[in-house]
Amino acid sequence: MTDEFHKPTQYSGDKFDTFEGGEDPAVIMRIAHDSAHALVDRARDTDDPAVVERLVAYTDQHGVDALAELWARSSPKSLPGALWRIYLIRVLIRQDPDATSYLFQRGSEVLATIDAAVAGAPMPTGPEEITALADQILRGLFTGDFAVALDRAAAFSRVMSAGATSIADDADVTTPQRGSELTTRALRFTEMGEDLTAAARLHRAGSLE
């Protein structure tokens, strides 16, 4: 990590709505995998909690663009792809905890599954609770059961998708454009949840590379 920090990049909702993963050229893909393994190994090999906290808060100081260059185009069924998605979730939450908690709370109310409980947010879920949840999930990658952290992020994504869909239905009546934006966001969260669930299965099988 450098000593010179720049202002963190604001990763807007519009960018999230158009986010897509993909395959990198071979050399860049190798760098993505090597850097992801090095980061996770460093966190898991240390007894210093300050190291883990610096890794959790990396994007607060450096912005998300540095990670995007490394991992954003990696396969979702890979370690760098999974790390990118969870860091992206944290950035989105911290940049707008009010809107995020609103979507999550709505999703927890309309979704007839245990996903809200799996994600681990207290109810009701306000801005402080949703921000703490983002840190807990990311910290779990470095100190807890890696697959469980992926499952929690996947469950979070499904709750968010349900919330966005529900609010989109309401918005369609008065503000169709807003409804369309929320529908697109719901789709992105659905895809994110599917990717993270697949990554968790691969990790449990010892195949997440």
Automatic annotation (TrEMBL):
Any one GO cellular component localisation term in the record: DNA-directed RNA polymerase complex
Keywords, in A-Z order: DNA-directed RNA polymerase, Transcription
Transcription as UniProt keyword: yes
Protein name: DNA-directed RNA polymerase subunit beta
Organism, as annotated: Glaciihabitans arcticus
